[in-house]
Amino acid sequence: MDFLTKFPEMPNKEFREMKKGIDASYKDFAREWGDLIDAMFDPLLKMLVFFEKTLVATPWPIFMIVLLGLTYWGSRSIKLVIGTFLAFVFIGYFRMWDETMSTIAIILTSVIMSVAIGLPTGIAMSRSDRTQKIVTPILDIMQTMPPFVYLIPIVMLMGIGKIPGLIAVVIYAIPPLIRLTNLGIREVDQEALEAADAFGATKRQKLFQVQLPLALPTIFAGINQTIMMALAMVIIASMIGVKGLGQPVLQSIYNQYFTKGVLYGLAIVIVAIVFDRVSQSYGQRIQKHRSGKLV
Amino acid sequence: MSDAKIQIKNLYKIFGKNPKTAMEYVKEGVGKDELLEKHNHVLGLKDINLDIPERSIQVVMGLSGSGKSTLIRHINRLIEPTAGSVTIDGDEVLKMNEEDLRSFRRSKTAMVFQRFALLPHKTVLQNTIFGLHIQKIDDETAKKSALRWIDRVGLSGYEDKYPQHLSGGMQQRVGLARALTNDGDILLMDEAFSALDPLIRKDMQDILLELQDELHKTVVFITHDLDEALKIGDRIAILKDGIMDQEGIPAEILLNPQTKYVKDFVEDVNRARVIKAKHIMDQINGQDLNNAMPINQDEFIDRFIDKVIAEKPDSLLIQDKDKNNVGFLSSKKLAEILKR
Fold first, then answer.
1. Is B42 part of the contact surface with chain A (CB cutoff 8 Å)?
2. B87, B229, B233, B339: which has the fewest C-beta neighbours closer than 10 Å?
3. ipTM of the complex
4. In what order do the strands lie in the sheet with B91-92?
5. Which parts of chain B have pLDDT scores under 50?
């Protein structure tokens, strides 16, 4: 009664052959195309390196002034400005400044990339139910697949380094932006669209003058989510060579450096909270006149 | 009436998966409820024929679900019909391609919406300018025109406010200014005043009538409110379950309701305020005019009834504004009409 106690599984030999076959062909693919794909991502690498170098090279008082200025411009809240100042004093005083700059550089780059890819994808999804049906399961996979799993093929293809890390971060962080762009545009009031049609707007005019502006608060919530998720990925990304706050944390895990781990962990939390609060209050501020619904 | 500005012929609209098939059932006499229950299609409009004359206000009245909002959306083709034809100035709207339709909407029509449909991220001025902005008319010209209409609807000083800072009545004034700035001959108003409270609604009705006095647009006005229909309509069409029950001038509808539905509708209306002398006069045909009291043909009954009660003439002589005799009305007939 083998059939009942043991699941009728694929024979061991065939299974091994299959895995080997797939691995071999992927390796061939990687050898053949790896360099080309590397080259394709070169501009992105240049952007990331540029951000990183600029941020690290910027004297800290200037960075602080710019950051606090942006915080005030985004939120119009003195309390938030003071909080941000204290947070970065903590980071600087406990010798984590340079790593923080690296992390901000990769967050910045991955958010720019996420918006560049996610916004058009979300718009396309909102325009056709078929596109939505195709993209939604892909987003589901991106959000549920453990990041380690898609790190494997990325590393096989491109080796260890900044770009594979960046790609991993983007894969992890982009789904909420796409989903919320799609949702925001689909939720735009039907009568506002009718009005645009009735006045003879073209599709393009409708998109840029009605749909995107009315969906903006929702899209902005998506960007906020993307920033948060990108920050959550920095530790995992550090495993494949992304510099920043993640690497010291990883070191501390391997070597059981309790204090160091906690400090760098706190630094990640601080950056996350500052980014979150500033982007959220900016999001609320732009909602003042343009609440998604019609008034 | 072939000189109609807007001519709607045999218009059908059925919502659902197979509207063409469902239309055959409707033609065989299947009603709205049965169509939904047995065939799972919604009857929007059935065989609508309506000629809307130029420079007048055509009211389309009906309760919710009667298809009145569906009908108005066929005029600028926001909704595609299942069958039928809509011609404006002799051009078939339903045959236009995308480009023609767009320029038709830009140049000939403008629409005012029940829930205003203003863009919350744009100021009053930017909202008013919207139609012209889309046509890429240069800012100076557009702004001049927009400011004129903002002033005309009484919103001067609010140009830079955002819609949500305005009351409902003011928002709809913006909606009206936006439509007028577009300067088409045809103004489509979809329950434009229904969301406003009674006093403000009356205000808006007066503004519309005042503007119409000088602009003479062809207005199609949707409402579910009979008083509103009687007040502003030159002609009224009554819709029920997608079918047009009756169409005519207000007095005709009041005096000769064709169906029970219309009869129920008009039962409680104060006729004296709606019917003019000319609506109920008879032809002059040898009656004794010597003791008749002269009355202007455009006077409403409630404007001359006091005079009639005071002087008790046997009959009234109806005259136009140049004092030419145009009709005759016996006091007995007048009393009959008011009694009914």
1. no
2. B339
3. 0.85
4. B91-92, B83-88, B6-15, B42-52, B243-248, B235-240, B57-61, B218-223, B186-190, B109-112
5. 1
Q: For residue A202, what is the nearest residue in chain B, using CA coordinates? A: B102
pLDDT at A292 over 80: no
Judged on CB neighbours under 10 Å (0-12, 13-18, 19+), A26 is: middle
End-to-end CA distance of chain B: 32
Q: Dmax of chain A from CA atoms?
A: 76
From the CA of B64, how many Å to the nearest CA of chain A?
Answer: 17
pLDDT score, position B332: 87
Burial label for A109, CB within 10 Å (0-12, 13-18, 19+), is: buried
User: Which whole number is the average pLDDT over A2-8?
Assistant: 84
- Shortest distance, CA A76 to any CA of chain B (angstroms): 20
Is B294 found in the same domain as B180? no
Q: Which of A197, A209, A289 sits opposite B78 (nearest CB)?
A: A197
Number of structural domains found in chain B: 2
Q: How close A190 gets to chain B, by Cα (Å)? A: 9
Check residue A288 and give its pLDDT: 65
CB contact under 8 A, A295 and B171: yes
Q: Supply the range of the domain harboring residue B279.
A: 274-339
Cβ contacts of B130 on chain A, cutoff 8 Å: 195, 199, 209
B87 by Cβ neighbours in 10 Å (0-12 / 13-18 / 19+) ranks as: middle
Residues of B in contact with A192 (CB under 8 A): 117, 119
Q: Are residues B238 and B120 in the same domain?
A: yes
Cβ–Cβ gap A198/B78 under 8 Å: yes
